Amino acid sequence: MVNLEFLKHSEEELSINITSMIDVIFILLIFFMVSTQFKKASLPLDLPRSEETAESEQQDSTKVLAVNANQMELDGKIVSLEELEPILEKMYSENQNLALSLECERTVEFERIVQILTKIQNAGISRIGIVHDSIED
Fold first, then answer.
1. Residue 38 has what pLDDT?
2. How confident is the model at residue 113 (pLDDT cuts 50, 70, 90)?
3. pTM: predicted TM-score of the whole model, two decimal places
């Protein structure tokens, strides 16, 4: 007769513990990810320059309108509120890329600034930068 007790012990399932192997694999993966250098594939290109962009950059001009409590100066020339709109219309018709920098002192009344902005808008200029004195004075 065959010993059944012996067969039960021999039929136990054999297994390999792979927990430590998984740890080693993750450590190697992290090492290779950190130590690898990624390079961007690029080609040096020497593109030709367009003549139109050079001309448009030259035509792009900025005028300065300085306003204080007593007077206005457009690029160093004193102008009145009535003269401002026709002068700006003429400048804008000569150069559609005209930009205007409006420099105001703190002493200028808000109503006057609104009048000046209205004249600038009526002249067709939409590129306006407003600069003011610092409040810390």
1. 73
2. confident
3. 0.53
DSSP assignment of the chain equals ---HHHHHHHTPPP----HHHHHHHHHHHHHHHHHPPP--------PPPPHHHHHHHHH--EEEEEE-SS-EEETTEEE-HHHHHHHHHHHHHH-TT-EEEEEE-TTS-HHHHHHHHHHHHHTT---EEEEE--TT-
Quote the CA–CA distance of 24 and 40 in Å, as a whole number.
Answer: 30
When computed from its CA atoms, the radius of gyration of the chain, rounded to whole angstroms, is: 39
Nearest to 120 by CA among 104, 99, 97: 99
pLDDT tens digits for 3-24? 656 555 555 667 778 888 899 9
Neighbours of 120 (CB within 10 A): 20
Confidence of residue 69 (pLDDT cuts 50, 70, 90): confident
> Would you put residue 110 in left (φ > 0), alpha (ψ -120 to 50) or beta?
alpha
